[in-house]
Amino acid sequence: MRAAVVGGSGFTGGELCRLVDGHPDFELVQATSREYENKTVGHAHPNLRHLDLRFSDPADLESVDVLFAATPHGVSMQHIDAFQDAADTVVDLSADFRLPEASAYDEYYDGHDRPELLADAEYALPELNRDNLPGATLIAAGGCNATASILGLLPLFEADILSGDERVVIDVKVGSSEGGASGGKAASHAERSGVVRPYAPTGHRHEAEISEYLGIDVSFTVHAVDMIRGASATCHVFPDSPVSKGDLWGAYRGSYEDEPFVRLASGGGGVYRYPEPKAVAGSNFAEVGFELDAANKRLVVFSAIDNMMKGSAGQAVHAANIAYGLDETAGLEHTGLHPVGAP
Amino acid sequence: MRAAVVGGSGFTGGELCRLVDGHPDFELVQATSREYENKTVGHAHPNLRHLDLRFSDPADLESVDVLFAATPHGVSMQHIDAFQDAADTVVDLSADFRLPEASAYDEYYDGHDRPELLADAEYALPELNRDNLPGATLIAAGGCNATASILGLLPLFEADILSGDERVVIDVKVGSSEGGASGGKAASHAERSGVVRPYAPTGHRHEAEISEYLGIDVSFTVHAVDMIRGASATCHVFPDSPVSKGDLWGAYRGSYEDEPFVRLASGGGGVYRYPEPKAVAGSNFAEVGFELDAANKRLVVFSAIDNMMKGSAGQAVHAANIAYGLDETAGLEHTGLHPVGAP
Amino acid sequence: MRAAVVGGSGFTGGELCRLVDGHPDFELVQATSREYENKTVGHAHPNLRHLDLRFSDPADLESVDVLFAATPHGVSMQHIDAFQDAADTVVDLSADFRLPEASAYDEYYDGHDRPELLADAEYALPELNRDNLPGATLIAAGGCNATASILGLLPLFEADILSGDERVVIDVKVGSSEGGASGGKAASHAERSGVVRPYAPTGHRHEAEISEYLGIDVSFTVHAVDMIRGASATCHVFPDSPVSKGDLWGAYRGSYEDEPFVRLASGGGGVYRYPEPKAVAGSNFAEVGFELDAANKRLVVFSAIDNMMKGSAGQAVHAANIAYGLDETAGLEHTGLHPVGAP
Amino acid sequence: MRAAVVGGSGFTGGELCRLVDGHPDFELVQATSREYENKTVGHAHPNLRHLDLRFSDPADLESVDVLFAATPHGVSMQHIDAFQDAADTVVDLSADFRLPEASAYDEYYDGHDRPELLADAEYALPELNRDNLPGATLIAAGGCNATASILGLLPLFEADILSGDERVVIDVKVGSSEGGASGGKAASHAERSGVVRPYAPTGHRHEAEISEYLGIDVSFTVHAVDMIRGASATCHVFPDSPVSKGDLWGAYRGSYEDEPFVRLASGGGGVYRYPEPKAVAGSNFAEVGFELDAANKRLVVFSAIDNMMKGSAGQAVHAANIAYGLDETAGLEHTGLHPVGAP
Question: Where is this region: Disordered (chains A, B, C, D) (predicted)?
Answer without folding.
Answer: 177-199
